């Protein structure tokens, strides 16, 4: 199951949850129990396992170089 990141629209709490995409709509905020959640898309969803990588922002290296 994939990890999804959410932000509560009522209290602003942001959290990550390992949940099936079929059940994302059943989640509630762990802080205030609100169901008004917005999915957050960040750099951690671009395929990098290294949190220090700057792959999406350019630079950072670690991949194939077109210059050999």
Specify the CATH class of one domain. Mainly Beta
Oligomer: single chain
Strand order of the largest sheet: 2-1-3
* Strand tally: 3
Q: Features of this protein?
A:
mainly beta; Rubrerythrin, domain 2; 3 strands; 22% strand; globular
Please provide a brief summary of the model.
The chain is an all-beta fold and 68 residues long. It has strands at residues 3-8, 14-18, 37-40.
Write the layout of secondary structure elements.
Layout: E1 3-8, E2 14-18, E3 37-40
Antiparallel strand pairs: 1-2, 1-3
Question: Describe it for me?
Answer:
- With 68 residues, the chain is an all-beta fold.
- It has a domain at 3-44: Rubrerythrin, domain 2, CATH 2.20.28.
- Helix content is 0%, strand content 22%.
- It has no helices and 3 strands.
- The protein has strands at 3-8, 14-18, 37-40.
- Residues 45-61 have low confidence and may be disordered.
